[in-house]
From TrEMBL:
It comes from the Eukaryota. InterPro entries: Mos1_HTH, Transposase-MT_Hybrid. This is Mos1 transposase HTH domain-containing protein. It holds the Pfam family HTH_48.
Length: 106
């Protein structure tokens, strides 16, 4: 296998791990097989140990779970205008007073 074709994505690694779990292999055996084929592009043992546990608990997907994203409601025209007013009034103003005044995170 060429070095280029052995660079798998995380999802592809998980798919291989899932296949080996269904065949009844232990995480140690899975890791050893993956290292023997993928060499330096193999996933870490920690990752190989984590995913079989997930698949044995009836996890079906190899995809990452969706992560909550931060809402970008703080960046509004009104807040920009207020911040500009604070800075023009005192160019040495610190971040905390602005955040507290507008009730936004720093």
């Amino acid at each position: 296998m060429s070095a280029e074709s052995s660079n798998l994505s995380n999802i592809e690694h998980r798919t291989v791990i899932k296949h080996f779990v269904k065949k009844g292999k232990t995480p140690k055996e899975i890791f050893e097989d993956m290292v023997s084929v993928l060499q330096e592009s193999a996933p870490s043992y920690t990752m190989v140990k984590k995913w079989p546990r997930s698949f044995q608990q009836e996890r079906g997907s190899c995809e990452d779970d969706p992560r909550p994203r931060r809402l970008v409601t703080v960046v509004t025209e009104e807040n920009v205008r207020k911040i500009k007013k604070f800075v023009l009034a005192d160019r040495r103003i610190k971040l905390w007073p602005i955040a507290e005044e507008l009730q936004i995170s720093k």
